[in-house]
Amino acid sequence: MKALTSMATRHLLEELLADHAVELTATGGVDAEQRVSGGEAVDLVFLSSAALTRLSASGAIDAETITPLVRSEVAVAVPSGSDEPAVRPAGAAFSDAQGVRDALRSAASVGYSTGPSGSALVRMVEQWGLADELGDRLRQAPPGIPVARLVAAGEADLGFQQLSELVGEPGVQILGVLPGDCAIETTFSGAVTTTAKDPAAARRILAALAAVDAEPAKRRHAFRPA
């Protein structure tokens, strides 16, 4: 059985699928959606719920099988100057949205992802009227490249990405998640494709991933159960 996932959930799924006969491929979320939409032969796909809704509308996946698995918060990171893996902090990076706006305005460069967190950040910047002011200081990481890599390399001095993709990365310090008044949260789900060779078996795997027994692993990987 073959599965395709975005980068956000790859480490979690590698752990949860270790006892299942599933060949997991991880790539950028935009690329994964395009590959499934284009008819790539996979049995399971793990993406944001919004992406799966689009794929169900095109007939690429079975809409009835869409299964919410985890909720992921967007966090803020800065360069650490250390090779130590980044650890998950408690609480928010700033006290409120004004603190986030101030940090954006003072940053020389801001890294964000191609996935749903990046799209949400850009919308927020536009709503705050900062798009023109920030201009080319906003730097989108290439598909499949973690924002943490840009931050660690000094190509961005402020980075926004799913918390799960920042934890454990070297060269960055995670300041915390976005505060409640501007929080960005994405639900990642799994679904069975309409070309799956054994849909029943794929459904059973999805059920196992959504079970209570999987919750400790989800929390270890900086997610909240859906």
TrEMBL record:
GO terms for biological process: molybdate ion transport. Signal peptide: none annotated. Gene3D superfamilies: Periplasmic binding protein-like II. Transmembrane segments: none annotated. GO terms for molecular function: molybdate ion binding. It comes from the Bacteria. PANTHER family: BLR4797 PROTEIN (PTHR30632:SF11), MOLYBDATE-BINDING PERIPLASMIC PROTEIN (PTHR30632). This is Molybdenum ABC transporter substrate-binding protein. The lineage of its organism: Bacteria, Bacillati, Actinomycetota, Actinomycetes, Micrococcales.
